[in-house]
Amino acid sequence: MPTPLIAGNWKMNGSLTLVEDFGQAFADADLPEGVEMALMVPFPFLQAAGRAFAGSRLALGAQTLSDQPSGAFTGEVSGEMLRELGAGLVLVGHSERRTLFGEDDAAVLARVRAALVVGLRPVLCLGETLEERDAGRTEAVVLGQLEAVCDALAADERTRLVIAYEPVWAIGTGRTATPQQAQAVHAAIRTRLAAYDAGLAEGMQLLYGGSMKAANAAELLAQPDIDGGLVGGASLQVDDFLAICQSAG
């Protein structure tokens, strides 16, 4: 059974004070054993977060990366830079990157490869819009995004992924997929992974990323194929994020 992982995505939010607050709170908190916890903070906070989280079990993650290792790409950040600052994970293909910044499946794959080559764990985000769900295309869209990456990777590279299912219609809207809806998609993802390799499916961490909160986390995490959460707004509140992490134990 995969190790539970609760990862917070601050998006373009937060402050140095909040970084310090999380570091202190998680250093002192009573946390369940056998649960991985991480925060994906904005680039400018990575170094401070690395220091602040050093006394806690919080791992450090980034929100995206360039598909290039270096060069004349003003404003971009490479995987090697993220590693040097202590990041161990990086989001790839988040719905906001796909929709607001035009990252298609090819761009997502290039970023996955860029993460893998420097030893970062890519958290590959998959999800459908409301229109796609209403058209009955949820599985086709989500599994298509999965296959666009996994078909191009070697078997050992696939094992280094984390998968996050984030229904686009449930991000920042206050709407949440029911536990049964979320479980159905997670089960479809795991079944598709099993077609590559049974061991891959059994070991893959599948996170739910659609408005997970302290109030609904336990019920979502109780589903058999939901191994953790990619938490948005609630990850900006120390007490809420702590509660979600504690519910994963």
UniProtKB/TrEMBL annotation:
UniProt KW keywords: Cytoplasm, Gluconeogenesis, Glycolysis, Isomerase
Localization of this protein: Cytoplasm
Family: Belongs to the triosephosphate isomerase family.
Gene Ontology molecular function: triose-phosphate isomerase activity
InterPro entries found in the cross-reference section: Aldolase_TIM, TIM_sf, TrioseP_Isoase_bac/euk, Triosephosphate_isomerase, Triosephosphate_isomerase_AS
Active site: H94 (electrophile), E166 (proton acceptor)
Reaction it catalyzes: D-glyceraldehyde 3-phosphate = dihydroxyacetone phosphate
Name by which UniProt lists this protein: Triosephosphate isomerase
Gene name per UniProt: tpiA
One Pfam assignment: TIM
GO cellular component: cytosol
Single Gene Ontology BP annotation: glyceraldehyde-3-phosphate biosynthetic process
